[in-house]
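Quarterly update from the structural biology core.
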Amino acid sequence: MSRLATKFEALAKAGRKALIPFITAGDPHPDFTVSMMHAMVEAGVDVIELGVPFSDPMADGPVIQRASERALAHKMSLRRTLQMAAEFRKTDQQTPVVLMGYLNPIEAMGYEDFANAAQRADIDGVLTVDLPPEEAVECCALLKSRGVDPIFLLAPNSSDERIKMMAAMGSGYIYYVSLKGVTGAGHLNIQDVEAKLQQIKASTSVPIAIGFGVKDAETAKLIAGIGDGAVVGSALISKIEANLDEPERAKDEIIALLTSMRRAMDS
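Predicted structure, tokenized:
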């Protein structure tokens, strides 16, 4: 059983939901990332989404776009992101790590070389935002053969046919995009999200994590009431951006927000 499956099974048995933070590898500086990952685990997170910096992050709003720009200015790459994940894994064998990014760097490396590198780095899942299931058969097979879960996005307008296709191909968890638009935009309509989750759950037993609108403890608590996990990204990256000259202060503010979310989700 994969780390992700083990984690979600343990959470379900405990009546708890997954708190899943997203940070961009190398933002604001490569020295920050691994220590931030460990600090988030100490704050009670369950899974870490580690963003691979990319020059054209089309699904991301301006906050995460600027995070990629800052990381790329420090010569970050897919290979360096994998190295960071491997460094984290040296002292944390329990927390699942999911790479989240775009297809271009993976294609540049080559599917098989990437799958091998992900396995060596002890990556647990890969979420490729712009890889549709129709074109993902080869990549999924290579990842699964190496014990890495391919994770797919579903959206408010995903059809039954597409839900079934992604549920059949993916594993680990499904990332439900709760808003139409880019990361960090808009406000959640919890009734709409709940209705869509019921539609998705009719086709799969894979856990469903909800993101693109989780900004504070109150939202995280609402998400915990209907889904299997809450993904928070832009709200954390904003803390980094507001404290570029004081990374330790950024870390403290991120931990404070995650701690409040963890408390609210468990209440």
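Residues 181-185 have pLDDT under 50 and may be disordered.
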